[in-house]
């Protein structure tokens, strides 16, 4: 009996891994890199250039389609940015009806910073902070921008603020703490 159990024990994980790989290889199912506890960038598929992922239909549609809500466009811009497609992320944010949300401003800052325009990124982050000072994700990215500039004291101020928002166990705190300790990782 234990031989059967051992055989199944070894085969089930392999079968599940195979199924996961098969799903990941489906057309249009490439997953962007993650990076945020409450965001869906890790699970939103990326689409070809000029397209946007529409959650309702679960399809890639032309980015000029008017029935894709700003929330989907904003989330998709972040997915593109996390996948390293920074200019496309900015282009997607340019299609928003309301570009002045805390998320849109934060993601614009993120993509801009990743394109090497750190000071411009900081200005977008500060606009997001002005809309919601308790938005931990923007505090994390603002702190990372300060690390890039070598302004560790300002990064640590953001870390302290994040701690007051969500404690030391939230992803934003952990990620910024790591960036401060190991700046080469950002």
Structure description:
- It is a single chain.
- With 186 residues, this protein is mostly helical.
- The protein folds into 2 domains: 78 residues, no CATH class; 69 residues, Tetratricopeptide repeat domain (Serine Threonine Protein Phosphatase 5, Tetratricopeptide repeat, Alpha Horseshoe).
- 59% of the residues lie in helices and 4% in strands.
- The chain is built from 8 helices and 2 strands.
- The protein has a two-stranded antiparallel sheet with strand order 1-2.
- A hairpin with a 4-residue loop joins strand 1 and strand 2.
- The longest helix is centred in the N-terminal third of the chain and has 23 residues.
- The protein is elongated and about 45 Å long.
- The relative contact order is 0.08.
- The N terminus is likely disordered.
- Pfam families: TPR_11 (PF13414).
Keywords:
186 residues; Serine Threonine Protein Phosphatase 5, Tetratricopeptide repeat; 8 helices; disordered N terminus; mainly alpha
């Amino acid at each position: 009996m234990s031989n059967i159990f051992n055989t199944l024990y070894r085969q089930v994980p392999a079968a599940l891994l195979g199924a996961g790989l098969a799903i990941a290889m489906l057309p249009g199912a490439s997953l962007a890199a993650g990076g945020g506890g409450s965001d869906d960038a890790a699970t939103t598929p990326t689409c070809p250039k000029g397209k946007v992922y529409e959650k309702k239909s679960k399809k890639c549609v032309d980015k000029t389609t008017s029935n894709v809500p700003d929330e989907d466009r904003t989330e998709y811009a972040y997915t593109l940015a996390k996948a390293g497609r920074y200019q496309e992320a900015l282009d997607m944010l340019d299609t928003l009806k309301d570009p002045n949300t805390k998320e849109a401003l934060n993601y614009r800052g993120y993509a801009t910073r990743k394109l090497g325009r750190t000071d411009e990124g900081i200005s977008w982050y500060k606009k997001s902070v002005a809309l919601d000072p308790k938005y931990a994700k923007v505090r994390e990215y603002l702190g990372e921008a300060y690390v890039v500039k070598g302004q560790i004291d300002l990064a640590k101020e953001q870390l302290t603020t994040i701690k007051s928002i969500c404690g030391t166990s939230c992803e934003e705190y952990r990620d910024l703490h790591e960036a401060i300790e190991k700046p080469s990782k950002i």
